[in-house]
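Operator note (shift B, R.M.): manual run for DUF659 domain-containing protein requested after the automated queue skipped it. Running by hand, logging everything below so the morning shift can see what happened. Input copied straight from the record, untouched. If output looks odd, do not overwrite the archive copy; leave it for review.
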Amino acid sequence: MLESIGQYGSGFRSPSYHEVKVPLLERVKTKTDEMKKHEEAWKEYGCTLMSDGCTDMKGRHLINYLVRSPEGTFLGSCNLSTESVIGKLLAQLFEQQINAN
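Run finished. Output pasted below as returned.
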């Protein structure tokens, strides 16, 4: 990245704090508002909790959490690359996901 900036020349002007902050905050607010719709549907209609996982070629584990309701599917994930994946750990992670919402 720095090499690219150097190739651009001394006239390169980096974005201001405000130019970076505002679009990022707007994206987070939009995602938060969308999440509220899902949470309301979960309370009204109920939902189904699901999980899926995979292991990459280096043996790192990634667990995906899905919550299905009439409003749509919400997806979260948990990187378990440093953990040994056993049933008790998966149960704890599910419980954390439930309590977070």
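Quick read of the result: Strands lie at 48-55, 61-69, 72-79. The chain has three helices and three strands.
Leaving this for review. - R.M.
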